[in-house]
Amino acid sequence: MNSKVLLAFSLAGVVSAQAGLDGDYLDRLSPKARAFVEKYKAEKANKKLDNTQKRKVVVKRDVLGRAAKSGQSQDSTVYVVDNAVEPKMEVTVFDLSLENESVENLGPAHYSYNEKTKEENFWLNGKKMDKKSFLKKTEDWENRRMKLQKPFKQPYKAFLTPTEIERKLQSSEDVYIDEPMEQNEIANFIPFQYSDPLYGTVSSNFATKDEVLVLSQLGVAHANGDKGDNIGIYYVDAGCASASLIPNSSKHRAMACNRKNQPHASQVTTVLQTFAPNAVVYGYDSQNFNMKSAPGPSNPTGSSFNPKIYIGTMSIGVYDESLTGNYEKFDAALDNYIFANGVTEFINAGNYTPSLQSQRTIHSPGKAVNAITVGSYNPYPFYLNGSTVPTYIYEAYSNFINSDVGTAKPEIMNIGSFSLPNGNYTGTSFSTPFTAAMAADLMTRHPFFKGHPEMVKPVFLTATWGTTYNNYDTDRGAIGGIPAYNFMAFNKTFSGYWPKAKDNALFKDANGNDKTLDVTFNGLVAGEKYKLAVSYLTKGSVIQKLKKMPARLSISVYQNGKYISGLNTTYAHQFIMQSFTVPKSGSVTMKISRLSNLAPDDDIAIGYHMALETTP
After folding, report:
1. How many angstroms separate the CA atoms of 136 and 106, rounded?
2. What is the 3-class SS of 164-194, one letter each residue?
3. CA geometry: angle at 101 spanning 100 and 105, to 5°?
């Protein structure tokens, strides 16, 4: 073949690769990044290069490196090379690819606890065992899993040209390009009295430590030694806490903090240490540990942390009015982080900020589906018509509008106004770490929940006490009432999980036929009423592609083959919750079935929790 033809094919390939953005690529570019690339390409295509931007190159050898013979210079080829310097843009690169689990799982695990008899039972892959053996076996497995797990792909910042952006997008269908938005980080305080455009003048009420311990029942937790022992909690905030403003500086680790002695971070830490006093708190400054670029610490349950990190909390968010309601890349990155590392994440719903928001939309990363998003109630309930059930007031500042994925957010409302030693403060910024502290106390009492956010969410969903008076959350959001610790830890409960596995492996038998996930609950008494919740974890990359949850599940409860109750999820929901009354003393069986899944070859993890409905 003539050398000119070979070279022409080669150059044609380059031109083709840079000719324009494929439609699939456009969906993976933020609006600003897309405009940046398209503007450059349009200008390049529509204007002639001036003499300062072009130079001639004479090629006197063929593609095999052979020089032209004397007298054959007419075969030399002259090319005009574009010397123009491409502009660069600062972007955040998200690689949301996440591989399926590489280590063989141990099979389903189940746990029952009866506060009246103090009886605990553990099962692993159908085999009953004592607590010590169960915890040792699962911890050894987790250590093997972490050794085999590939490093989590943290998003990163870079200055890229339009051509470099295209190449990144072409490298993987899981690569997304966004622009940094740190200027819109929100870590705002709510004034003690404020004017709301919809609800008028609103005043905050503050609960003291002792009042909160009673309202949440954490006083019983602390009296029984449940104080967050052997639990690591990390926070990301606009700076780190001041050692002089928190209850116990010896249990606070400033991990990456340019901005020290910050009041907001100090108050977040105060809430954590007041209500989980023996937990170790790891602090990260969002400026160093960029909240939009790094969802959480690397290898949180590895040897770098003592104690290991099982809980994360974030009372800071990003908001972009042009993307109102969108499930964004940083939501997906946090979902990937939770899925890969088993950290239970509590994220604030955000405080309505009229100067930034036209709607009361949940801030990102509070739209992360695998996280537990927390809103805020006024701490003091009232009782309607002589009822003994408390009714709580939804704080007007607490955001509640769901993302375009549609999952119900926030899942939990909690006390958001505190009067503690370093001041009075209110907002979802504080209801969130308070809820994280409750989870730390819970994991001290019941270590079965460590590393399994797919179970912790159902625990909180089934542990609420009370109703909501002015429920602004009209789009299928939070469960009414606040979480009550007695319902979580000192109750008659049944919990379990199926470790990460392909959906088809869970819901297909060896012959390829559909099957259900069945669990039998023993020792139930006629007339007992239970709350049952099931949730599942999935990859953020899957949600980002589908713009919806991938699976639809159904739960049904039977006794002696007779149907008692049941409920289905939709593609907009990640959890199911229902109540039922036990017809006859004995046992009931829960059946979880898959109605459909849009990503059957990707891993999911399923967890459940069932708790006796009682009074505090």
Report:
1. 12
2. HHHHHHHHCCCEEEECCCHHHEECCCCCCEE
3. 145
List CB contacts of 467: < 8 A, sequence separation 6 or more: 389, 390, 391, 392, 480, 481
Looking at the DSSP bridge assignments, the partners of residue 236 are: 284, 314
> CA-CA distances (angstroms) from residue 390 to 9, 463, 471?
76, 14, 14
What pLDDT shows up at residue 106? 87
Closest by alpha carbon to 539, among 121, 141, 101?
Answer: 101
Contacts 24+ apart (CB under 8 A), 9-12: 10/63, 11/79
Nearest residue to 312 via CA among 353, 287, 354, 340: 340
Write the pLDDT tens digit of every residue in 575-584.
888 999 999 9
> Given this model, what pLDDT does residue 11 score?
30
pLDDT category at 1 given cuts 50, 70, 90 is: very low
- The SS3 call for residue 332 is helix
Q: Which residues of 330-341 are buried (b: 16+ CB within 10 A; e: fewer)?
A: bbbbbbbbbbbb
Q: From CA 24, how far away is CA 454, in angstroms rounded?
A: 32
Q: What is the pTM of this model?
A: 0.87
Confidence of residue 57 (pLDDT cuts 50, 70, 90): low
- Please report which confidence band the pLDDT of residue 197 belongs to, taking 50, 70 and 90 as the band edges: low
